[in-house]
Design brief:
The complex is a heterodimer of chains A (682) and B (194). Chain A has 682 residues and is an alpha+beta fold. Chain A is built from 21 helices and 23 strands. In chain A, 43% of the residues lie in helices and 23% in strands. Chain B is mostly beta strands. Chain B contains four helices and eleven strands. Chain B has a six-stranded mixed sheet. Classes of the chains: A alpha+beta (682), B mainly beta (194).
Chain lengths: 682, 194
């Protein structure tokens, strides 16, 4: 706990500085940020060492400080007192960590906790929003964080100016330029927001738009900015915007530098560093970087092949030492690539909470409109997924939630008659599962009405009447996702709005995800979505079928088995195999793709799976694994079935990447008439 | 990039060559015979005197032409990546610097051939690729698309007024014109590559 004591001490020190600075009514943001940071680390430490009371206290203090930081709360005496007492209690709790706190200490901590929480709840009257006076485009306004907005207001309140400018740096070293610029500006200006700039044609450059607050004159700012910035614009408060030519100004600056007084009290170094450590980067730019990494990977693979060839025994044209060097370089390059790739992948990951929060609000509205009473409980918002997937998820999730509210959850009176709690319960849960994330949308409503589903399916010609008797369980639920159900008026007698579950199914398939339903009549329904963590780069299993090469995304491969021809069972034109007691449908890729079939005594079967579904793919040969960046087929080939895209394996070899979700659909008969539809131009 | 010595080094010509992205071994001699381009002066001319630029090519003994501005590049024909269960006239796809580009059998699309040529998949199953065959990659609303043609001939200029209309129902052929002693069938790209 020594570290906790140290942190508590640092917290106390900064708090004293805050107190001293706060007298003038001005709360220095750098000090406040530092205090906030310490409280945050304290919370983490306490939680790590199982110090429950301390963690709770630190959490409450952090909340309070966050409100101060965002300007929602003014720093007044009771606030300061509570925080100071907090510091003292942190010390005591840390000292007593070994033996556990005694009753008196616990009681004091509890009472302080109450006070901190109470203080956090005091609403602060917010004066007329200064921000609206600032001529900022709605585009910019919409991406500013609450903290950034607060700092803009503060800047205006201090009667300083908000300036705006663009910088452009090379992609490889912008991470050095940006802090350097912040450093140069720190004596005279506060960098409030760093936003992605306009698109640049140059693929090796990156552009940022910066908003800074400063009371310094144009000349001083210009001098600090000059190497990087071409044009500086004041964001006008009331009047028109002024444009200043920096180069010209800098010339004037050299002549009259001393004359310019420093109007802004110099803030402590690194005003925003850890409170706002994120730089928003255009996702397309990250994509481009990912692609570059993908290409590098291919080069690495080529190098490997060269090295292998050169070190093979019997090679006389090249000295063996050459091969060894090559191999060494290749290994180093591969290691660096690994680091780069995982860094980039991390940068793309965002927590699901972003979507969950948006859904909360929508659910409340939809429930009110539908006259249902319900609670939405979300869990696992901290689970992270590729930004693109998270963005694409909000629509399907909303579809499912709306579906649950409209068709699943019963009206309050009906629920009471059924001896269910009056308020329905919707749960939205996310949990990681290997290379996938599983998201569940669960309701405690009436469940899927099997009889009604069969009726509609027969009506729509999705099911022959005699088949209807046999259908049950998963096969029945799969019917919900068939395109015919889109226009179905409704599965439930209650609502007239048929929500297109097939749309959800299609959206997910585009994200290489699958959906599954479980439902118990009277108890509720659960939709389970299984999604890959990222779409950017995957490993593929390279297989050969009738002289063609295809890649199967490795994250979908469950196992590989070799079978004799007698192991294939055939029933009603459909083939299946038995894999350790479980019957798995089998597709011969050669037959599916209408290619000449080779005759084998033993066949290699790649068992692929998504969620609970399994499918065996019979192939001729397994060629190995490769990293691949899959390029989509594009609009013209949107109707091609079973192919997710094209990947380059280096060596100018282009292979098709199989669409496992679609193939599983075909194997299970969920996509009727798939063969008939294929690639017509356009 | 090595260019044939006959190509004059005027900047506009260089631009034009770049725009076409000719392969180093591509025969570009016919371009050198062109008068200098007239872009920029055209809008001043009366509409019926307007000259339109077309790229002409041969397909099953007939000569066709498509608007030059829509042609992104001309590639030497090569074996394509096979798309399983593809329907005619799709031949296969090309990976064109990262963009997956479908290539169509134009002869089949225009009803000039009955059977689709086999130019995708393992080489031993494919038809030989004729030496003069080219793939014209064109810009369309739904993204770039390639057309397999027998031979690329020339860039021709046709006065708008001299284009003879064809009766409706002629499919993708939208006009006739003559260039020198050759009859040209003018194609509308969006219709050919529907």
């Amino acid at each position: 706990m020594a570290e906790a004591v140290e942190t508590a001490e640092a917290l106390g020190r900064e708090l004293v500085r805050l107190d001293a600075g706060g007298e003038g009514g001005e709360t220095p943001p750098a000090v406040l940020n530092a205090v906030f940071r310490h409280a945050h680390s304290l919370k983490g430490l306490a939680a790590l060492y199982g110090q429950g009371m301390m963690a709770e206290l630190a959490h409450a203090a952090e909340d309070l400080l966050d409100r101060l930081r965002l300007g929602r709360l003014r720093l007044r005496e009771p606030v300061m007192d509570a925080l100071s007492e907090g510091v003292e209690l942190f010390h005591r709790l840390a000292t007593a960590a070994e033996s556990g706190p005694d009753a008196a200490l616990l009681a004091r901590s509890k009472s302080l906790l109450g006070r901190l929480e109470q203080l956090s709840q005091v609403p602060e009257r917010i004066s007329a929003d200064l921000l609206t006076k600032l001529e900022l485009s709605s585009e910019i306004r919409s991406v500013l964080t609450e903290y950034e907005e607060h700092r803009l207001r503060e800047t205006l309140r201090r009667r300083a100016l908000v300036w705006r400018f663009e910088v452009r740096w090379a992609l490889e070293d912008f991470d050095q330029h940006l802090p350097a610029l912040v450093e140069r500006l720190s004596p005279m200006a506060e960098v409030i927001a760093t936003l992605p700039g306009h698109a640049v044609d140059d693929p090796t450059a990156i552009c940022f738009e910066l908003l800074i607050g400063s009371a310094a004159g144009e000349e001083r700012l210009a001098a600090a900015l000059l190497p990087d910035v071409g044009q500086l614009t004041v964001v006008p408060v009331r009047k028109r915007r002024a444009r200043v030519d920096l180069a010209q100004l800098a010339g004037r600056e050299e002549r009259g530098a001393e004359a310019e007084p420093d109007l802004v009290p110099a803030e402590a170094e690194g005003p925003l560093r850890s409170a706002s450590r994120t730089v928003r980067v255009d996702i397309e730019r990250l994509d481009a970087m990912m692609n570059a990494v993908g290409e590098l990977r291919l080069i690495a693979a080529n190098l490997q092949r060269l090295a292998d060839g050169a070190t093979a025994p019997g090679v006389v044209q090249l000295p063996r030492a050459f091969g060894a060097d090559l191999l060494k370089d290749q290994r180093q390059m591969a290691r660096r690539l690994d680091a780069l790739q995982s860094g980039l992948l991390d940068a793309r990951m965002v927590p699901l909470a972003q979507v969950f929060e948006r859904l909360q609000r929508l659910v409340r509205r939809v429930a009110r409109e539908a006259g249902k009473e319900l609670d939405l409980v979300t869990r696992g918002g901290e689970v992270e997924l590729d930004k693109l997937i998270v963005e694409e998820l909000s629509d399907p999730l909303m579809h499912l939630l709306r579906n649950a509210i409209d068709h699943g959850i019963e009206a309050p009176s009906e629920r009471e008659q059924l001896a269910k709690p009056r308020r329905g319960r919707l749960t939205l849960t996310a949990r990681p599962s290997g290379a996938h994330v599983v998201i569940e949308v669960r309701d405690d409503g009436r469940g899927v009405n099997a009889a009604r589903v069969k009726e509609v399916a027969v009506e729509r010609g999705l099911l022959a009447p005699e088949q209807a008797l046999d259908v049950s369980g998963r096969a029945l639920h799969r019917l919900l996702f068939s395109p015919g159900f889109t226009t179905a008026r409704s599965i439930s007698p209650l609502s007239g709005r048929g929500v297109g579950l097939d749309v959800v199914h299609t959206n997910l398939a585009r994200l290489s995800g699958v959906i599954d339903v479980e439902s118990v009549a009277g108890l509720g329904t659960c939709f389970r979505l299984t999604l890959p963590l990222t779409l950017a780069m995957v490993r593929g299993l390279i297989v050969r079928v009738s002289g063609r090469t295809y890649a199967i995304p490795l994250n979908a491969v469950v196992e590989i088995v070799a079978l004799g021809g007698e192991a294939i069972q055939s029933r009603a034109g459909r083939e299946s195999i038995s894999v350790r007691g479980t019957t798995v449908p089998l597709i011969r890729l050669a037959r599916l793709f209408r290619l000449p079939e080779a005759d084998h005594a033993r066949r290699n079967v790649v068992v692929v799976g998504l969620a609970q579904e399994r499918l065996g793919l019979a192939v001729d040969e397994l060629l190995g694994q490769a990293d691949m960046v899959t390029k989509p087929l594009g609009e013209r080939l949107a109707r091609v079935q079973g192919i997710a895209g094209v990947a380059d394996l280096g060596n100018r070899r282009t292979v098709l990447v199989l669409d496992v979700a679609a193939l599983i659909g075909e194997g299970l008969g969920a996509a009727p008439g798939a063969d008939a539809r294929a690639a017509l131009p356009g | 990039m090595t260019k044939p010595a006959t190509v004059r080094r005027s900047p506009s010509l260089a631009d034009r060559l770049r725009a076409f992205r000719y392969q180093p071994d591509e025969d570009v001699s016919f371009l050198s015979a062109l008068p200098p381009p007239t872009h920029g002066q055209m809008p001043l001319a009366p509409v019926d005197a307007e000259l339109r630029e077309y790229l002409s090519f041969e397909l099953e003994e007939a000569t066709y032409a498509v608007p030059l501005g829509a042609v992104l590049e001309i590639l030497r024909a090569r074996l394509l990546v096979e798309i399983p269960r593809a329907q005619a006239p799709l031949l296969g796809v090309l990976d064109l610097r990262g963009t997956v580009t479908p290539v169509y059998d134009l002869g089949l699309g225009l009803g000039l051939r009955e059977h689709i040529r086999k130019v995708a998949g393992p080489p031993e199953e494919c038809d030989p690729v004729p030496k003069e065959a080219r793939i014209l990659v064109a810009r369309t609303a739904a993204g770039p698309a390639g057309m397999w043609v027998d031979r690329v001939r020339d860039v021709v200029r046709v006065a708008a007024a001299s284009i003879q209309p064809v009766p409706p129902g002629a499919g993708a052929v939208v006009g006739r014109a003559t260039a020198g002693d050759k009859a040209l069938l003018l194609l509308e790209l969006e219709r050919v590559l529907r």
